Amino acid sequence: MKKINSAVIVFMSLLWIACDPGSKTVELGDPTTCEGCHTSRETLELYAEGDSSGGSGGG
Amino acid sequence: MVPLEPWEKVYIKLVGNQTSYADIDEAHALIGCVECHGGNEPAEFENAHVGVVRDPSRDAESNCNPCHTEIVETNKNSMHTKAWGEMTTIAERALGAGNDHTDFDNCPIELTEGFNRECASCHTTCGQCHVSRPESVEGGFIDSHRFKKTPDQTNNCLACHGSRIATDYEGHLQDNEPDVHYTKYMKCWDCHMEDFHADASNYPTRYHLPDLPDCEDCHAKSDNPNNDYHKVHWPAQGKGLACYVCHSQPYNNCNSCHTKNPDGDLSEWWHTNYGPVAGEIDVQEGAGGYREYPDFKIGYNYNQELHKGKFIVVRHIPVVRDSYRPWGHDELQFYDDRVTWEYSSPHNIIRFTSQTDTTGGVGCGANCHLTGDNAEDNLEHFLWQADVDADYPDESIANKPVVVDNKLPESWLKP
Fold first, then answer.
1. What is the DSSP string of B325-376?
2. Residue B235 to residue B307: CA distance in whole angstroms
């Protein structure tokens, strides 16, 4: 029984490691300036994901 | 047109050796973002966007004027900014024939307020032609916030002029071909040389503007002196056929109005007044959806001072007696004073249409005149009083000037 439990623990651990989304590193511009954000696609995508209003639309 | 992704709408893409917006548009970069758009810089996201103005050119006098003084001054009364033609149609139907955009302010207040709230807001700003897509397709930069002197045909012109012009010009209707000018890669401005920024306050409709395109600017009667059809039908004031009568394919007609109740409980109003008629489809895009159907109708030229040719091509306009009820205006008192099949200039021109098809050596009259083997089919080309009475009975009186009954030449009716 102990062997089976160990195998399950090892398997679950491997599964956890494989599926861990971890953290995403993005190339951010200077976040305190307009250009810093608006020239960084990754930054805009991140903000768009968190902004339910759908963004300002850009005129 | 599919709207851009939210991030895409405001993305300034640096390419190659570019390191900042100044490398894209040096002149506008000198002004700085906050100067036009407001907001705060430097700041974190939340504070940066406090008070941000999405389209600064809505206030062109403040934001565009310092550099573009002359254009700003005339453009505030241009056809694209003011929609004078829409004002004329409302004034004529609310106040009576002979009234035009200059009388619009005399219309009942619910019409003027509704217009300013709903129609006027659609009409464009500097930015919606020169830097981003228009509001009607939810905006978004076209070319990384680079201001372009000449607008982009697809993303600017056709984003607004889509359901009729783009559909026709690019040949999207079933069984239609693209316009011959499209297949030769001609752009809007190759024909449309009128001054879009000009003050148009003296012109009741777009068809009154000076320097409008005219087929004869490029195609002279003398180009092909042996063309018998041109000899007989070449259009002139009060004579002949408008070029579209022979060279236009079927085009979209509209069957729904765009008026909405600001409170929302009659927001589907524009879906309830008509039809359906054969071939009609429900288009759920653009400014809230509309219904349209392809058709082709030759009508009598009811304004021969304005349009060349005794016969013209006409398109059904979606307006009914109580179109503006959602605005609180129950009935257009002079609804019968203006036709609802109006002069049209379809952008789907080709040389050989079903009207000009001479396959097998038949004359093109065989596809148009009401004689011979095709007479029954050819009736369909024309707008008859009986058709209006049957399909649109409340529009019978309004369209008497445009139906062809008793107006076709005798030679078209008898063998």
1. GGGT----TTGGGS-SEEE---S-B-SS-TTT--GGG--GGGGTSSSSTTHH
2. 9
Cβ-nearest to B10 among A31, A33, A55: A55
Q: Which residues of A touch B10 (CB under 8 A)?
A: 38, 44, 55-58
Cβ-in-10-Å burial (0-12, 13-18, 19+) of A2 comes to exposed
Cβ neighbors of B278 (< 8 A, separation 6 or more) are: B293
Residue B308 DSSP symbol: S
Interface contact flag, B131 A59, Cβ < 8 Å: yes
pLDDT tens digits, B43-64: 888 899 999 999 999 999 999 9
Residues B182 and B177: their CA atoms lie apart, in Å, by 10
Q: What is the DSSP string of B32-91?
A: -HHHHH-S-SS--HHHHTTT--S-GGGGHHHHTTTT-HHHHHHHTTSHHHH-HHHHHHHH
Residues of B in contact with A34 (CB under 8 A): 33-34, 37, 39, 41, 48
Q: Which two tokens stand for residue A4?
A: 């089976």
Averaged pLDDT for residues B126-144: 93
Tokens (6 digits) for B338: 């203006």
A32, A48, A51: residue with CB nearest B43: A32
Q: Which residues of B touch A58 (CB under 8 A)?
A: 9-10, 54, 132, 139-141, 145
Q: How many CB pairs under 8 A join A and B?
A: 80
Closest CA to B357 of B182, B177, B215, B226: B177
Question: What mean pLDDT is predicted for residues B153-180?
Answer: 92
Half-sphere exposure of B30 (CA within 13 A, CB side): 3
Tell me the average pLDDT across B195-211. 95
Count Cβ atoms within 10 A of the Cβ of residue A4 and give its class: 0-12 exposed, 13-18 middle, 19 or more buried: exposed
Q: Looking at beta carbons, which residues of chain B come within 8 Å of A32?
A: 41-44, 48
The helix (run of H) or strand (run of E) holding residue B315 is: strand B311-316
- Minimum-distance CB partner of B7 among A31, A33, A55: A55
d(CA B397, CA B385): 9
Q: Identity (one letter) of the amino acid at B19?
A: T
**What Cα–Cα distance (Å) separates residue B113 from each residue in A37, B83, B181?**
40, 14, 40
Q: What is the mean pLDDT of residues B233-246?
A: 95
